[in-house]
Specification:
The chain is an alpha/beta fold and about 250 residues long. It has 2 domains: about 180 residues, Nucleotidyltransferase, domain 5 (2-Layer Sandwich); about 60 residues, no CATH class. The chain is built from 10 helices and 7 strands. The strands form 2 sheets. Strands 3-2-1-4-5 form a 5-stranded mixed β-sheet, sandwiched between helices. The two termini are about 30 Å apart.
């Protein structure tokens, strides 16, 4: 790894819909190199101004009453965007949920966040390579941590994710597996490889009927195609958020 800043990203939300739900807690654990020295954990709560689902409240224990005293995400969106830029962001299943819901929060806040300025490592991909199971089993298998015992109001989960990443990194070193195998490609913007960047730093289609055309050109010439993608339930939330975000 050779980036100036690495951030393990963890979110608690009002629900599991990356389009309509909101972030109520954002935690980052930062470190500078493979020694994982001088790690720093930062957390912030947000008032979503919508109801937290019963299922989510049962998982993380955070209530709307508790969040009433906190400000909305939009009040911190610019600072968060600046903090995340030019970093390597690490998470578990990050393409499926964390990035789409985060992008939607920035959209909602009308704050620019350039996804071309970040790199991504998905610990789920690492785990599937080493042991194809769930986050619960990953923490139990690698770190002997029972996820059911977490106090979601504290930073225990984020600390456990850092421990998981350190342990995975140690095992990969023993097996001569490098992080480059899991690091998001320099030009690929989503987990499905739908979008990438060309030499002009434009977002282009990497596959499909409009392969190699820029997203902006397709928006201008074939808007019905983008409407079809947005309405297609088989298209990932990340792809839809890139389409929505690039309209700014």
């Amino acid at each position: 790894m050779s980036y100036d800043k690495y951030l393990i990203l963890d979110l608690e939300t009002t629900g599991l819909d990356p389009i309509n739900d909101k972030i109520i807690k954002l935690t980052t654990t930062s470190f500078n190199d493979e020694s994982f020295s001088s790690s720093e954990t930062k957390s912030r709560y947000f008032n979503p101004n919508i109801s937290i689902s019963e299922e989510s409240e049962q998982i993380h224990g955070i209530t709307n009453t508790f969040l009433n005293e906190h400000k909305q995400f939009k009040n911190y969106a610019k600072a968060i965007s600046q903090y995340l830029e030019n970093s390597c962001i690490i998470g578990y299943g990050i393409y499926d949920f964390h990035l789409p819901i985060l992008l939607n929060e920035f959209l909602r806040s009308k704050v620019e966040f350039d996804i071309r300025k970040i790199k991504v490592i998905d610990m789920k991909k690492i785990y599937e390579k080493l042991r194809p199971r769930t986050l619960t089993n990953a923490l139990k298998d690698f770190c002997s941590i029972e996820i059911e015992n977490f106090d979601r109001k504290s930073d225990e989960k984020s600390e456990a994710l850092l421990e998981l990443f350190i342990t995975q990194n140690d095992e990969m070193s023993k097996k001569n597996i490098t992080l480059d195998k899991f690091l998001s490609s320099q030009n690929i913007l989503d987990n499905d490889g739908f979008f990438s960047l060309n030499e002009k730093d434009e977002i282009i289609f990497s596959k499909g009927k409009h392969k190699d055309l820029s997203l902006q050109n397709v928006r201008n010439q074939f808007p019905d195609y983008l409407d079809w993608l947005m309405d297609n339930e088989n298209i990932s939330p990340m792809v839809k958020m890139i389409i929505s975000y690039d309209q700014k």
